[in-house]
Structure formats: structure tokens, C-alpha cells
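agent> step 3/5: call structure_predict on target 'Tetratricopeptide repeat protein' (Pseudomonas shahriarae).
agent> reason: downstream docking stage needs a structural representation; sequence fetched in step 2, passing through unchanged.
tool.input:
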Amino acid sequence: MFNVFFLFVISSFASLQMAQADPKAMEVKGVKGTSLSAQSFDKKYGGWRDVEYRSAAVSFKIYAVPIGMEPSEDGVVANPDADSISPDNRYLIIQRTNAGEVVDDEGTTIISSQAYCDVISMETGCIKNIGSAQQCEGTWQDDKWKTSRGEFFDFSKGSNSPRLLISDASRNTESQSRASSLRDHIFMGVPSYMACYPPEKNISEYNDMGFYFAQGGEHFLAMQVYNRLLVVAPDRVPLKLNAADSLWALGKIDEAKKYYAEYLGAMKKKNMESKIPSRVKERLN
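tool.output (status=ok):
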């Protein structure tokens, strides 16, 4: 019988050397005043646990993905070296490793890991996976990333769109598996994924995504989606109910009642009171 504790680890080309130096913080400057900063270097995994993208308009954590009823899980992102940023400062290559500590019945700890190669747009904070760790071995040539195998990557190509993710997830009838599958695709974090696919252009799909997360017990993730949608689509009636349900599950009763009340009022205006779930009035009372 094994107990598994999963840990996101993002390591750079120089992570082993950095681990010995025990750095306190690092920062990479991007185009138009953007930056990627990192703190909390983990010597055990040779990478950073606290990474943030910043621009003049927004700032958000990356690779910080809540799980279940917990606000966040540990994450590590290492210090990219000087060759990781493109000559035009628009893209940054990052090696990401998903590592797990497996503890057997005798107390022996075994660490297993899987490494990937990602690219972040320093213009928007959008992160896309471009393949295995081997894809991070290469050089920049004319603002294009050329791997050691001679492959060039077109970073304008998108990752899996919200519509495609929802379409794939809808085929899975098991709620937790569906939420877990979606969560795996949003390894970069909700804010970064939304930087790739703006919510104002994908309102319905994001609402479904939040609902699927909530069905699988991923209420923190669901609220990250709902909070952004509530800004761009404040009058969307089903969204109010979905947000209220997740807030209630998280124990945020007063906030939940606010959205339950707004949902109730909106449904009454539409003469659809008969379709209001019984829990709405029960929780408001």
C-alpha cells in the first residue's frame, strides 16, 4: 500500500547549480515591462515554489493550482538561465517536472518524476506545453526555439481550447475523473490559462468548466473560474447559482447567500420560480 503526495516542480537548465547556491529570489524581464519573478527556492527539488507573472495590467501566480478543498498545493519553478528568454523578450522556455513522493508501508520514500517543457508568453502570461523535457534542450534562432533535434516551434499555435476541453470532459460520466482531467490540462493555473483564452470570448465554456470542477469537489478551482466570469458576465443567471453552491461548499455562507438571493431574484423576474432548486430557498432561510 502506498501513500502518494504530489508536488509540482518546475526546474531550469541550471537548477542543480542553483540548488547549491540557495538563492533567495530571481526575476526575468520580458517585453513591454513584463516580468517573471520567483521566490522560495527548494533545494530538495532544485526549483522555485512561488512564481508570479507581472505586467502593467495584471499579476498572478503560475503553476499554483488549488486542489479539492485546499487553497493551493506546493509548487516549484526553477530559475531559467540567460538562454531561456527569446532575443525579442517575448517568450520564456521553462522545464516543468511533476514529482511525487511515494511512501511505502516501511516508511521508505521514493521520488518519481515526469519532466515537461513549457513556454510562457511574456506579453500575456499564457503558458503552453510544447512537449517533453527534451524540447527544452536547444537554442533561440531568429526568435524561434530550435531544439537539439532540429525542431522549430510555432508558439502562435494554441493549446487545448475551452471548447475542446469541455467536449472531451463531457464524455466522462464520473465527476471526479472529469474534474481531474480538466485540472491536468490547466497545470499552468486558471489565470494563465485564461490569458491564453480570454473568458469574455468563452463564457459558456468556462461556466461549464467551473461546474465540472465543482461537481468533482474542486471548489477552489471552480471559484477561480467563477470569480473571473462574474466580472465579464455579471448578469449570467446560472453563474450566480454555480458560484453560490461552491461558496457554500467552501463555508463562505454570507457570500453564498448573496448570490443565492441574486439568482432567486433573477429567476422570479423571468417567471421561472418553479425551476429554482429547493436548496436555494432553504439556504436563504
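agent> step 4/5: record observation. The first strand starts at residue 3 and ends at 10.
agent> proceeding.
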